[in-house]
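Feature request, filed as a ticket because there's no other form

It would be nice if the structure record came with a short human-readable summary line next to the tokens. Right now we just get the raw output. Example of a typical job, pasted below so the devs can see what we mean:
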Amino acid sequence: MRYAHTHLLIGALLALLAGCLVAAPAQAAPVLCDKYASTTVQNGRYVVINNVWGADTAQCIDVNQNGGFTVTQAAHNKPTNGAPASYPAIYAGCHYATCSTGSNLPMQASSSGFGSLRTSVSMTYPGSGVWDAAYDIWFDPTPRKDGQNTGAEIMVWLNRMGSIQPVGSQIGTVSLAGGTWQVWYGNIGWNVISYVRTSPTASMDFTIDTFLSDAIGRGYAQRSWYLTSVQAGFEPWVGGAGLAVNSFSFSGGGGGGGGGGGGGCRAAATTQSQWQGGYVIQPVTVTNTGSSTKNGWTVTFTLPAGHTITGSWNATLSVSGSTVTARNASGNGTLAPNGSTSFGFQATRPGSDSQVPSGYACA
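Raw output as currently delivered:
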């Protein structure tokens, strides 16, 4: 009886252990509630931070391993004439010595690969609270990976709710990246150049140099400075629950800190036509930005929820969740330096949806 009883105990322990293993997958998406908690997504490609730097009130974010997060709790209630409570964000690059993988940052803005650096984001906004939804793009005179950057902070405000404004004062307006923007400038130990969109948007896809070149032209940034991180998130003053980054991407620049070279590539998409319920994306131009011939290329991009690709040409497309992978066809995979080719596709979408795919990245 003792022998049988021992085997029953061992069996029960093994069953319990198996249950524990099943209940705790290695890639479970965490909920971050500590003030400065962080985690990585997409195998370290991006870092997600809770970053409650300006308040002691509670905030939690639910991290999406596909590359985003949702603010699930935010008890903030700060005066709107001061700093925000926090900046929950997702980023590529280095922020206070925590670096993502594969970003090639820091990178000097004079590098030959800098012009191909591209980012995209898709966001969801609640109907209450006081907040802004913004990129935070950091530059330093040195290739800094830790501590406070002292060159320029370029903020790109996609949307805002409530009576809030950026650092400093408005100095003009400009048309960039498919929108019209108020331009604000202030200095708080480093230059803060803020671009506030006059008509809100929930998504963007642009090259980093679009806004940097404007800031350089105004005398607030320098081409010799280094891009250290590209961040997208939210600054809440009051509330903030329901703010969400649905998807985020950063790509390009194949060379790293001092220069280009190698076998990098760039993908740029054009919306040829669209209508209620669908669209055609053509051309998606793939360019070899490296110094050697590229044999074979792959382009990935994000397909909005509810969209379905119905046809494609000059590439083979596959879909996994919200990620679309396009691989070269048999006759257009070899690209000489500075050479290019293109492909296209057609898709359907819900009738009330005006989104198109974003976040094109080439490898």
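Something like this underneath would help us a lot:
The first strand starts at residue 31 and ends at 32.
The CA atoms of residues 181 and 263 lie 35 Å apart.
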